[in-house]
Amino acid sequence: MLDSIQRIWFSFWDRLVEGSGIFRIGRWFATGLVAYLVVAAGVGVYWSQTPEPLNVSEKAGVIAAEQQRSVVVGSATTAALIGVTETLLQKPGGYLSNDMTPPGLWLDNVPNWEFGVLVQARDLMRAFRKDFSRSQSQSQEDVDLAKAEPLLNFNNKSWLLPATEGEYRKAIDHLYAYHLRLSDPAKTQAQFYARADNLNNWLGDVSTRLGSLSQRLSASVGQVRVNTDLAGEAAAEQATANADELTVQTPWSEIDDVFYEARGTSWALIQILNGIEQDFSGALEKKNALISLRQIIRELEATQSTIWSPMIMNGTEFGLWANHSLVMASYISRANAAIIDLRELLSQG
User: The pTM is what?
Assistant: First the structure.
């Protein structure tokens, strides 16, 4: 029996080596498949690199020069929003969240990074439409921003009819049109109001996002948390009752997803806050809060350090192995605490 199996195997191998008939086709197919997988893996590694940070001042200057306009109040924050959104589409590999073919199909970390960036871009776009461009609640909203916001909130995974990239490019076009009118002295309908209350409103959204991310990151090791849903108000009620203690743990398959979403969120916030620092410098200096904003940026920059491990580690809090999620949660929590302090400064008269 063994001799028969050996004869069959050697006969198959001889025909494969000779390259005749169907075996030649199979050999070329196998060789091509292996070569494709090797190339795709290399391309995937290149596409997975975090984009370089933006130079917001330079971006604002380039936009103004292309439009033959001057840099005005609001130019830096607008440039930051444009730059962050363009990065999603123009980074190595382009926009990958809706890719249906390898290697983009395999790179789940990059789409989660993109989603973190996209959420911040959407929140800032809403702040532009709701607060930054309006003098009061009864004022008329800007026409370009009113069109840009729903475009940027389009389904982030649509790959055809219409493709996500096409809708986001339309949103960017409207932002360019808004900046063109913003920097035109003859067109006063487009405005950017760098007021402390406007900034405070947007920072409230940022704080909420970071607080949620911090909790999700911390839950990588599982936690038993006291239910504080109704704390601080005796008459508070909720729709359905929860237990006094809740066990919260991120599924192991989602730990790296949450980590890269947080990393993308932090990357986007660094660029946006650099623009905020320039446009709101007057309001921040008046509140003696400029240094607080810079500290927030410093904490977020720490989240962008190089990841030397080939995978996101999930060790216990004081265990032998690292826990990258807890390290990320530490930086984000400190940034969020600084944002809360900054909001208190901005709310003071």
Answer: 0.87
